[in-house]
Amino acid sequence: MKIASQTEYVSARLNDYEAVKMVCEAGFDAVDFSMFHMAKDDCPLNTASYKDIVKEIKKIADSYGKPFCQAHAPFPTLRDGDEEYNKNMLPKVKRSIEIAGMLGVENIVVHPVFFEENKFEKNMEMYMGLLDDAKNAGVKIALENMFGKKNPETRKQTPNVCSLPEEFAQFYDALPREYFTCCVDIGHCALVGSTPEAMLRGLGDRVGCLHVHDNDTFDDWHFPPFTLDLNWTEIAKALADIDYKGYITLESDNILADIPTELYPSMLRYMHDAARHVASMVESFK
């Protein structure tokens, strides 16, 4: 089983080129290319030279013999009732899908949107509006389980769109499997009072990719596995039970936010080792 990590925090501190380089040098088998920064108008990927930039990014990964296995579109995808934001963001989401195709990505995560009314119908309209982009790019769009606002009494987050297996399955099953898949965010599952293993078993073979990270079950820390409170033995068993064959892809680089840049390589190596251990646990349960 192969492992990957996203580029988000290294890119934010340095740039996309250095982020890809560092993920490769840490030993990961592949790269998850984060495009959250495309939400900002001044992001280089929003300029007319984006294709040249993407070619250079891919050239770096190619020099290490590493593929891009996954990507993340800018977020939030849309905002309920904010037409100005949506008009500005939708072309960026579409371009991110194109970029994913240029990088050879298999799955790009595009977050579902919490709409106060008709959330199923409006999400279906959004996703089907991206179908031609996915076809042209040769990639699958991955839905992700989300969470809502915190309940001050329980300290848990309230369920939001696709937070629980039944709704996640409902959304996914209404879309063509050839161009859509499910990304289970391991950490988000625990925030809404459920467990990652319940989500994984509830979705079964719908699961095409993962966001792997740890938390204390109350806040969305996005820390590496084995640093907080999730039960990685049960998570690994569930992944084995559904015969998951995709990457163990970390979205755990929040831990890089407050440490010196000089320590990034050593922390990325820990993240690599943690992801490799999760992968070995899954294999041991198959």
How would you portray this structure in words?
The protein has 286 residues and is α/β, with parallel strands linked by helices. It contains eleven helices and ten strands. It has helices at residues 8-13, 16-25, 50-63, 83-103, 119-128, 131-137, 165-173, 186-191, 196-203, 232-241, 264-285; strands at 3-6, 30-34, 68-72, 107-109, 140-144, 147-150, 157-159, 180-185, 207-211, 248-250. The protein has an eight-stranded parallel β-sheet.
Condensed summary:
By secondary structure, the protein is of the alpha/beta class. It is built from eleven helices and ten strands.
SSE succession: EHHEHEHEHHEEEHEHHEHEH
Sum up the overall morphology in one term.
Answer: globular
Determine the oligomeric state from the structure: single chain
Catalogue the unreliable spans.
Answer: none
Strand ordering within the main sheet: 9-8-5-4-3-2-1-10
Mean pLDDT: 97
The number of E-state strands comes to: 10
- Secondary structure: helix percent: 40-55%
Integer-rounded radius of gyration: 18 Å
Give the tags.
alpha/beta, 8-stranded parallel β-sheet
Give a topology summary.
Blueprint: E1 3-6, H1 8-13, H2 16-25, E2 30-34, H3 50-63, E3 68-72, H4 83-103, E4 107-109, H5 119-128, H6 131-137, E5 140-144, E6 147-150, E7 157-159, H7 165-173, E8 180-185, H8 186-191, H9 196-203, E9 207-211, H10 232-241, E10 248-250, H11 264-285
Parallel strand pairs: 1-2, 1-10, 2-3, 3-4, 4-5, 5-8, 8-9
Antiparallel strand pairs: 6-7
